Amino acid sequence: MAERARTREAVAGWSAALTEAAAQVAECRRCGLWQDATQAVFGEGPADAPLMLIGEVPGDQEDQAGHPFVGPAGQVLDHALAAAGLDRARAYVTNAVKHFKFTRQGKRRLHQRPDSGEITACRVWLDIERAEIRPRVTVLLGATAAGAVLRRAVTISRTRGRPIPLGDTTALVTVHPSYLLRLPDAAAKRREYAAFVADLRRAAALLGA
Ligand code: SF4
């Protein structure tokens, strides 16, 4: 709840363009994903955030709550950020695509990866967020976010953890935290979680944190 209150306060400091985009995204019809989703999930965080974290697409819980990274992957992200010495309250957190994409299996809604047309259609919102926040460091969580920002196909294993100068910001590619949730065994989870934290520590080092 404290997190929600912080977010509302942070909105008060946003530029007019960012505030306008957050309102307009609710009516976006640039691709078909709005039709089945509950609502658009825009980014959240302070206007002067030095760090931006970009994921793929809202999940089931994010779609219902209207906030990014509040489900299981968000909990992994929160723990990893804390382990890396980064404060989520000082970061702007968003997704490359703003409406939940899923298929139904009984009562469950199973996440689906957005396609290139949906990522391209939705980039208009991400571009506004990036231009208005202008973070010093941008962490790209997974191949969808990396592709949306770097505008090319990205192989995570070849790109992760290496600072990529990108105009006013330095981008860092790492895995999406949902990848850690999908790993089958505990040893792999521990190993990959440590690698994820190490990537976030690189972001902290770039920020001088
Ligand atoms: S996913 Fe993005 S482009 Fe598609 S309707 Fe939603 S906000 Fe618009």
Tell the overall outline.
globular
Q: What is the CATH H-level superfamily?
A: Uracil-DNA glycosylase-like domain
What can be said about the biggest beta sheet?
5 strands, mixed
| CATH architecture verdict | 3-Layer(aba) Sandwich
Ranges with pLDDT <50 over ≥5 residues? 1-9
Q: If strands are numbered along the chain, what order do they take across the biggest sheet? A: 2-1-5-7-6
- What is the number of strand segments? 7
Name every ligand kind in the structure. Answer: iron/sulfur cluster
Q: Strand percentage, roughly?
A: 15-25%
How many domains, in number, for the residues? 1
First-residue to last-residue Cα separation: 26 Å
- What is the averaged pLDDT score? 94
Q: What is Rg? A: 16 Å
Order of helices and strands: HHEHHEEEHEHHEEHH
- According to CATH, what is the topology? Uracil-DNA Glycosylase, subunit E
Contiguous helical run count: 9
In the CATH hierarchy, what is the class?
Alpha Beta
Descriptive overview:
This protein is α/β, with parallel strands linked by helices. Helix content is 46%, strand content 15%. It has 9 helices and 7 strands. A 5-stranded mixed sheet has the order 2-1-5-7-6, with helices on both faces. A two-stranded antiparallel sheet has the order 3-4. Helix 2 (16-24) packs antiparallel against helix 5. The structure holds iron/sulfur cluster (SF4). Iron/sulfur cluster binds next to helix 5. Iron/sulfur cluster (SF4) is lined by residues 25, 28-31, 33-34, 40, 97-99, 118, 121-122, 125.
